[in-house]
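Q: Give me a backbone?
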Amino acid sequence: VQLVQSGTELRNPGASVKVSCKASGYTFIRYYIDWVRQAPGQGLEWMGRIDPENGGTKYAQKFQGRVTFTADTSTSTAYVELSSLKPEDTAVYYCNVRLGIKDYWGQGTQVTVST
């Protein structure tokens, strides 16, 4: 199982960013993908999840209205898009899938929001 994420992003405040997570080694549509972030010096923060089979989503309340999860089943790729970026959104963003009792993680994508 592999989750491979897109590369480092630098954005100005107010912009949007879209991070990808390409999955392989398992049946993509059978398992939810979660998105989690970690800001500098902070713990992991759950952003929400997507069901790739039907596109159903659940967003953490903190991010509702600013975040969108999508999934492309033709390429087994999940995406997170965060809009109206603030400096506080600076973090490493991770995708995660749980297969049975085992968690698999993407390598992380650094998103920096700064002028």
Observations:
- The CA atoms of residues 10 and 112 lie 5 Å apart.
- The mean pLDDT is 97.
